[in-house]
Specification:
Blueprint: H1 12-18, H2 26-35, H3 49-56, H4 60-63, E1 73-77, H5 83-90, E2 94-99, H6 102-117, H7 128-132, E3 140-144, H8 152-155, E4 164-169, H9 181-191, E5 192-202, H10 221-227, E6 249-255, E7 269-275
Helix pairs in contact: 5-6
The structure holds S-adenosyl-L-homocysteine (SAH).
The site of S-adenosyl-L-homocysteine (SAH) has 23 residues, from helix 2 and strand 2.
């Protein structure tokens, strides 16, 4: 299987590194890459422009829980060097970055410390000064653990913690083999607060669903997993939508962001999900 028509070659070394690797050895595969310094496959060098613009637009779906005096709590799983973690803290969130690689956490801690001390311009969008006011930065913490290992969320739970107000996924779901997608969706439903939202920068959407990853093509996968409650493994493109909404989530926002990374080739979509109210 190859992506012959793609104008840019897929990172074949990344794909071969994970080829035939069992699910239980996925985390060690990432740890090896970090330890070898092979991060150029995914490192975009700056936080997500689409996330910055959305946060700075002061979205309604995030403001409904601001009646609480404490800061909103965010999580970035598979946060890599922590670009989005630092950026969210600079926008007033208390943020956890989660990484299976110790090396990544060490690098991210240094990065976040430097950014909080002296923020780079790339953390802010055009709406920053006019809309953000003087909100001070939140706290940053990194967790060196496996997202799928239940328990870390209980370890960090403080009194009254009912889950995250915001979870941001960019290049985490697409890093996982397709048979882990259902667990990704289940874990997301477990760690979100009942009023919290899962924001996803859907990528890569230009890539054939059957082409090997990582990154694995995700066109239609978020909807299949979160809204339809299916396993996220879409075989036939023509039958992508089952029409049944048995998932735990409802999509409250879906748009093509004005700014995103070039690697998305203009196809990235931004989707925001919240848990359906349980009866
Ligand atoms: N979001 C980051 C990194 C994307 S690459 C960025 O945009 O730069 C995917 C990241 O997920 C890698 O850093 C990898 O170490 C991490 N990862 C993969 N599986 C994981 C798991 N099970 N738990 C936590 N982190 C994981």
């Amino acid at each position: 299987m190859s992506e012959n028509s793609a104008p840019v070659q897929p990172p074949t070394r990344l794909i071969s590194h994970f080829a035939n690797r069992e699910r239980s050895n996925q985390p060690s595969g990432w740890v090896e890459l970090w330890d070898a310094g092979d991060t150029e496959y995914w490192d975009r060098g700056k936080p997500s422009p689409a996330l910055i613009d959305w946060i700075e637009s002061r979205p309604e779906v995030l403001s409904h829980s601001t009646t609480s005096p404490s800061r909103l709590r965010a999580l970035v799983p598979g946060c890599g060097k922590g670009y989005d973690v630092a950026m969210l803290a600079l926008h007033g969130f208390d943020v956890y970055g989660l990484e299976v690689s110790k090396k990544a956490v060490e690098i991210a801690e240094q990065y976040a410390k430097a950014e909080l001390r002296e923020p780079s311009a790339h953390n802010f969008g055009s709406a920053h000064e006019s809309r953000q006011g003087n909100s001070s930065a939140g706290e940053v913490k990194f967790l060196n653990t496996d997202f799928f290992k239940e328990g870390w969320e209980r370890d960090i739970a403080t009194e009254g913690f009912k889950g995250f107000d915001l979870v941001y996924d960019y290049t985490f779901l697409c890093a996982l083999p397709p048979d882990m997608r259902k667990d990704w969706a289940r874990r997301m439903s477990e760690i979100l607060s009942p009023t919290g939202v899962l924001a996803c920068l859907e990528f890569p959407l230009y890539k054939d669903l059957k082409a090997p990853g990582p990154p694995w093509g995700l066109r239609g996968v978020h909807w299949n997993l979160l809204a339809e409650g299916a396993d996220g493994i879409i075989g036939d493109e023509s039958q992508r939508e089952t029409g049944e909404l048995n998932g735990k989530f409802e999509r409250v926002l879906y748009f093509n962001p004005e700014r995103s990374y070039e690697s998305g080739r203009g196809t990235d979509m931004f989707s925001v999900w919240r848990l359906k109210a349980t009866k």
